[in-house]
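User: Please predict the structure of the protein below. I'd like the answer in structure-token form so I can feed it into my own downstream comparison script.

Assistant: Understood. Taking the following sequence of 548 residues as input:
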Amino acid sequence: MADAELTAVRMTGICKRFGAVAANADVSLRVAGGTVHGIVGENGAGKSTLMSILYGFYQADSGQIEVFGQPATIRNADDAIALGIGMVHQHFMLVETLSALDNVMLGAEPHWLLQRADSQVRVKLEALMQSTGLHIQLDSLVADLPVGDRQRLEILKALYRGAKILILDEPTAVLTPQETTQLFGVLGRLRAQGTTILLITHKLKEVMALCDVVTVMRAGQVVQDVAIAQASIEGLAQAMVGRKVNMGRAADVQATAGEVLLQASHLGVTDNLGVERLKDVNLSLRAGEIVGIAGVSGNGQSELIDVLAGLLVPNTGQLRLLSTEFASPHWLDPSRARALGLAHVPEDRHARALVMAFAAWESAVLGYDDLPDYTHHGWMHHAQMRQATRQMMERFDVRPPDPELLSSKFSGGNQQKLVLSRELGRAPKVLLVGQPTRGVDIGAIEFIYSQLRALRQAGCAVLVVSSELDEILALSDRVLPRRRRAGDCRLHRGGAGPADDRGPDMTLLQGSSGLMMRTPPTTSPVFMSSLYSTVHPAAWALASTKAS
């Protein structure tokens, strides 16, 4: 009886097949009440399927579920909600044209008169926000809310419906370090109030920082179930992949930078609201090196990579790509960029890199469909496109290697590998990559890193934009942090110094959207602390707290 009272969820012998694929094979899971329980594994390991069964999206082929010690039959999401189970999906389920308050009460209106329902829901939500710290503007349209507020809104939706068990799927995938810190504070408060949290994530550092217990899944089965006190990042990574994983920087590989392949000068971008996103930015990319731009999203990184890719015409500036020069307003366009050997992997693969309703072979040729390999006298050769996609899938280990499968049906990691296969497959001279491993499992991350390094060794100039500081340090030969306020410090191999102390290997790019500094990579503690605190103070505060 005592065990039943302490157990929020017990799943026993869960099996689920999709055709010939066993997504879950005799999976058993116990989640203690009032804890944060991590569920990790590679893309396709079965963790999302298992949680979808718990939330009623799928029904298990066999097995039993108990919720708070009672047998449960969960046929749909309504059954799950009635049992006190809520789920926040990686891709938010919100109506952007409605207000935050309307999104919460949509489908759960307490009264048929909307004005009365609005008042009742508002009172309850204000109490919830006060007790949980999930503060948002209830009358704002969802379209106007930042990503962090949208996630808080999703959590509020679940709590409003009475969730005592909260499933979070990749909750920090699109959050800034500051938003992640805030989310961790909220989840800690919810745990203290007795809420049970199931956390699906690929970020093992976050698992170690937040979870009480972690379950590792591989190939549809549970391979490890361990308390965090007995776990390590290296051990979890090895359990996930089934072998030792090397994520760090290869110490024996020294980059030899060659000629400048891309040179941008005095770039300036002002958005429709009159806000300067880039101001007098200068940047050079050399053959055979990886340049990393670190920093919190919203400080001009996205605009910079769009300008360099030809997707955004700057208000001011010049660009030289190989031997071809462009000046605003007569700017590079994406088609010309590809013809000159520039490839681009966008930050948001769903919105800008893939058409989710297309088959994989159609997404795999986007932007390249007019090449002679695929088109002759205006006629597309679909057979050649399919065959080329099969070869790309084999080379980049896209699973399953099925060109006919819809792009939406692949896991996040395999979607990213499909995009990389398209953009890297033709040996570009310059590669721009935004958030290369967002929402990607640790095995796919290792593969993506190896591909970027191989491209660098082949003489490509690579620009990587990422909010993951460890990723920037693992990949980059030069690091360009960006933040809102300039003039704080410089970074170099030994640590930090005054901003005006400029040596020959230091370039400061001053603008309203941030300061850019270049430095040789190092992983010394002084350099790490300088980089973290320069890019975002909240990120360093979180790291320092966990370290102590």
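That's the full token string. Confidence is low (pLDDT under 50) at residues 483-530, 532-548.
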